[in-house]
């Protein structure tokens, strides 16, 4: 049986997430999980991911990533990759909607806050062949 591709509109997917800090998986790819999440008024503790880089793509809103080098501000349509073993924390003041990409098993309550919850997409069959369709210009 050949796997089917799945098209995902990121804005539609993140707008269906019920509540803040709930990570909704939209796809799996090569051992990585692509999740959307809505965050507001949240500053996490500094933390490190020892096994994987972490990608933050801003679907809507803006936030800052803090590292020992300082703050990096990200706005709608921008992304940043935090290299593995980099001490970091997101600083979110206003409602911001993200796409997160990281190695499966990276996120948990210790590094994503006590409100961390995972919400699965209803049909994830063959989702490792998913494509993400969003208006980022490529």
What can you tell me about this protein's structure?
The protein has 138 residues and is mainly β. It has one domain: Jelly Rolls. It has helices at 10-15, 109-112; strands spanning 7-9, 22-29, 32-39, 42-43, 54-60, 62-67, 70-75, 79-82, 88-92, 96-103, 117-119, 131-133. The longest helix has 6 residues, at 10-15. It is globular. It starts with 6 loop residues before the first strand and ends in a 5-residue tail after the last strand.
Summarize the structure.
This protein has about 140 residues and is mainly β. It is built from two helices and twelve strands. It has a single domain, classed as Jelly Rolls.
Question: Can you say what the CATH homologous superfamily is?
Answer: Jelly Rolls
CATH topology: Jelly Rolls
CATH class reads Mainly Beta
Q: Cα distance, first to last residue?
A: 30 Å
Helix/strand/pairing category: mainly beta
Topology pattern, helix = H, strand = E: EHEEEEEEEEEHEE
Radius of gyration: 14 Å
**Average pLDDT rating:** 82
Compile the SSE list and pairings.
Elements: E1 7-9, H1 10-15, E2 22-29, E3 32-39, E4 42-43, E5 54-60, E6 62-67, E7 70-75, E8 79-82, E9 88-92, E10 96-103, H2 109-112, E11 117-119, E12 131-133
Parallel strand pairs: 1-12, 2-11
Antiparallel strand pairs: 2-3, 3-10, 4-9, 5-8, 5-10, 6-7, 6-9
């Amino acid at each position: 049986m050949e796997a089917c591709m799945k098209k995902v509109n990121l804005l539609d997917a993140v707008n269906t997430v019920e509540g803040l800090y709930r990570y909704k998986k939209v796809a799996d790819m090569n051992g990585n999980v692509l999740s959307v999440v809505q965050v507001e008024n949240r500053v996490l503790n500094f933390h490190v991911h020892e096994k994987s880089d972490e990608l933050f793509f801003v679907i809507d809103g803006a936030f800052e990533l803090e590292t020992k080098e300082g703050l990096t501000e990200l706005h709608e349509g921008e992304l940043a990759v935090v290299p593995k073993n980099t001490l970091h924390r997101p600083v979110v003041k206003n409602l911001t909607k993200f796409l997160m990409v990281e190695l499966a098993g990276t996120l948990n309550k210790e590094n994503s806050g006590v409100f961390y919850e995972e919400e699965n997409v209803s049909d994830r069959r063959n989702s490792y062949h998913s494509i993400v369709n969003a208006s980022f210009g490529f």
